[in-house]
TrEMBL record:
<protein>
    <recommendedName>
        <fullName>Copine-8</fullName>
    </recommendedName>
</protein>
<dbReference type="InterPro" id="IPR036465">
    <property type="entry name" value="vWFA_dom_sf"/>
</dbReference>
<dbReference type="GO" id="GO:0005544">
    <property type="term" value="F:calcium-dependent phospholipid binding"/>
</dbReference>
<dbReference type="GO" id="GO:0071277">
    <property type="term" value="P:cellular response to calcium ion"/>
</dbReference>
<dbReference type="InterPro" id="IPR010734">
    <property type="entry name" value="Copine_C"/>
</dbReference>
<keyword id="KW-0106">Calcium</keyword>
<feature type="domain" description="VWFA">
    <location>
        <begin position="323"/>
        <end position="524"/>
    </location>
</feature>
<dbReference type="InterPro" id="IPR045052">
    <property type="entry name" value="Copine"/>
</dbReference>
<keyword id="KW-0677">Repeat</keyword>
<dbReference type="Pfam" id="PF00168">
    <property type="entry name" value="C2"/>
</dbReference>
<dbReference type="GO" id="GO:0005886">
    <property type="term" value="C:plasma membrane"/>
</dbReference>
<dbReference type="InterPro" id="IPR035892">
    <property type="entry name" value="C2_domain_sf"/>
</dbReference>
<dbReference type="InterPro" id="IPR002035">
    <property type="entry name" value="VWF_A"/>
</dbReference>
<comment type="similarity">
    <text>Belongs to the copine family.</text>
</comment>
<dbReference type="Pfam" id="PF07002">
    <property type="entry name" value="Copine"/>
</dbReference>
<dbReference type="InterPro" id="IPR037768">
    <property type="entry name" value="C2B_Copine"/>
</dbReference>
<keyword id="KW-0479">Metal-binding</keyword>
Length: 578
């Protein structure tokens, strides 16, 4: 009914009706070549919808649209079923979407009263709509967002309740062990040195490598060590998707010899050790040439154990808040803000690099902060009235309460500061890092996590103190993002990032990697499409946060709080007239 007979299979871009049974629709996300962090299932309910039918109540349907990042075009993602005769529907059909913490996913829910079998929405009565982001739903208490339906002037259109539930398969890992028997001998002098390579299949039929075992030397009957892999990486949560396993003979010069291959699936492997999990290793070339070819050996699954991991969303759903603080570099090396060459230039027509970076990162993080109040600090300026130099001043001019309301409030305070302070120096990071660390040190129970965004033009003056601050902060529930703007060399920032060499101070190493650095110039879009380039910037700086967050919780043995009990809104709401 109603365009849903095409419920199987994937929806074509731009084709309305039909419901994609997986959220990974091809056009869906221009940025995401990575495996989604997880999949979430959205459930939709409404209360007090408009009544558009004369003799009975409305027959509502919900249509979900997602927005392409570059061109802002809304595309239909899917539809629920139609529920007859109700103003308080609880839709059964769910929307399954890929969830990335580091991306802003704009959503639009449209509601219609269905009057005929036509899949064409213009033939039905519009009941209103609701706009939100996926992060807003997930970041709401209990991952449950309640919002007013809008879109029909002068009418109360009711409310919509959207709940997000993480799909179970996305948090499982499996511990597997394999052995092989009678593999083909590939080495002239000794036996083979075999190893296995696992590939998951993609939607388009291609394969992506997802695991390599170690090499077992000089044997045709190897037993490999058990290894752990997430179900997402192995098959993207699709239990019947093909998994291809190749067997190679390792060679020192890197030209490993192909012994053979076999295919399986998560569902087959999950049967564990049994006759079903003994695989013939086939070399297609040999099979084609030799009539008597049987196989190139066998590989046997020895054990298969499923482990469920706690996820980032478990903590968010349990009420952990992410507190976002921003620190902006007001040193003289940025140039005079009244000159177009300055990195702080206040162009009336477009954001400067500081403004763009702040907005890109802030707009995503704000969904996870319930009060939307963000402390905004500056460093490296002389302050009125006496011209003293400060390395942690409140952008809003109120040291007792440096909080600004929303990202727009932070932007406003930033522009106000540019008019009142004098850019000076030196560039000291340690004071703002210590400022946030003081807050983080006071709540180590997992109920709050702190993210500090430092935007700077680069050349740092207090490297030793900053390293010490970072090493100390690595024991606290906090992460630091550094965005480097302007043309400077950012070698010192790369060192703070600690991706290559873990950062240390006075012989003490950081307990975990908490710094992520990116140069802004890598994201300037030559075509002038700032929307897309800023989405990429946010993606790259925020992608590591969930893992850094989990590493803190794991090290401290903090489990997620239980989510608040699911709230079932009352069906019959008494409309009291005041």
């Amino acid at each position: 009914v109603f365009g849903l007979e095409k419920a199987a299979g994937r929806q074509e871009p731009g084709r309305s009706g039909g419901f994609p049974n997986m959220a990974s629709v091809g056009y869906f996300n221009v940025l995401s070549s990575s495996i989604p962090a997880t999949k979430v299932e959205l459930s939709v309910s409404c209360r007090n919808l408009l009544d558009r039918d004369t003799f009975s109540k409305s027959d509502p349907i919900c249509v979900l649209y997602t927005q392409a990042i570059g061109n802002k075009e809304w595309r239909e993602f899917g539809r629920t079923e139609v529920i007859d005769n109700t103003l308080n529907p609880d839709f059964v059909r769910k929307f399954i979407m890929d969830y990335f913490f580091e991306e802003r996913e704009n959503l639009r829910f449209d509601f219609y009263d269905v009057d005929s079998k036509s899949p064409n929405l213009s033939k039905h009565d519009f009941l209103g709509q609701m706009f939100c982001t996926l992060g807003e739903i997930v970041g709401s208490q209990g991952s449950r967002l309640e919002k007013s339906i809008v879109g029909i002037p002068g009418k109360k259109c009711g409310t919509v309740i959207v709940t997000a539930e993480e799909l179970g398969c996305c948090r499982d890992s499996v511990l597997m062990q394999f052995c092989a028997n009678k593999l083909d001998k590939k080495d002239f002098f000794g036996k083979s040195d075999p190893f296995l390579v696992f590939h998951r299949s993609n939607e388009d039929g291609s394969f992506t490598i997802c695991h390599k075992t170690e090499v077992v030397k000089n044997t045709l009957n190897p037993v490999w060590q058990a290894f752990k892999i997430s179900v997402r990486a192995l098959c993207n949560g699709d239990y019947d998707r093909t998994i291809k396993v190749e067997v190679y003979d390792w060679d020192r010069d890197g030209s490993h010899d192909f012994i053979g291959e076999f295919t399986t699936s998560y569902r087959e492997l999950s049967r564990g050790q049994s006759q079903f999990n003994v695989y013939e290793v086939i070399n297609p070339k040999k099979k084609g040439k030799k009539k008597k070819y049987v196989n190139s050996g066998t590989v046997t699954l020895l054990s298969f154990l499923i482990e469920t991991e706690v996820s980032f969303l478990d903590y968010i759903k349990g009420g952990t808040q992410i507190n976002f603080t921003v620190a902006i570099d007001f040193t003289a090396s940025n140039g005079n803000p009244s000159q177009p060459t300055s990195l702080h230039y206040m162009n009336p027509y477009q954001l400067n690099a500081y403004g763009m970076a702040l907005k890109a990162v802030g707009e995503i993080i704000q969904d996870y902060d319930s009060d939307k109040m963000f402390p905004a600090l500056g460093f490296g300026a002389r302050l009125p009235p006496d011209g003293r130099v400060s390395h942690e001043f409140a952008l809003n001019g109120n040291p007792q309460n440096p909080y600004c309301h929303g990202i727009d409030g932070v932007m406003e305070a930033y522009y106000r500061s540019l008019k009142s302070v004098q850019l000076y120096g030196p560039t000291n990071f340690a004071p703002v890092i210590n400022h946030v660390a003081r807050y983080a040190a006071s709540v180590k129970d997992g109920s709050q996590y702190f993210v500090l965004l430092i935007i700077t033009d680069g050349v740092i003056s207090d490297m030793a103190q900053t390293k010490e601050s970072i090493v100390n902060a690595s024991k606290l529930p906090m992460s630091i993002i550094i965005v480097g703007v302007g043309p400077a060399e950012f070698d010192a920032m790369e060192e703070l990032d600690g991706d290559v060499v873990r950062i240390s101070s006075r012989g003490k190493f950081a307990e975990r990697d908490i710094v992520q650095f990116v140069p802004f110039r890598d994201y300037i879009d030559r075509s002038g499409n700032h929307v897309l380039s800023m989405a990429r910037l946010a993606k790259d700086v925020l992608a590591e946060i969930p893992e850094q967050f989990l590493s803190y919780m794991r090290v401290r043995g903090i489990k997620p709080s239980p989510a608040p009990p699911p709230y079932t809104p009352p069906i019959h709401v008494l409309q009291t007239q005041i």
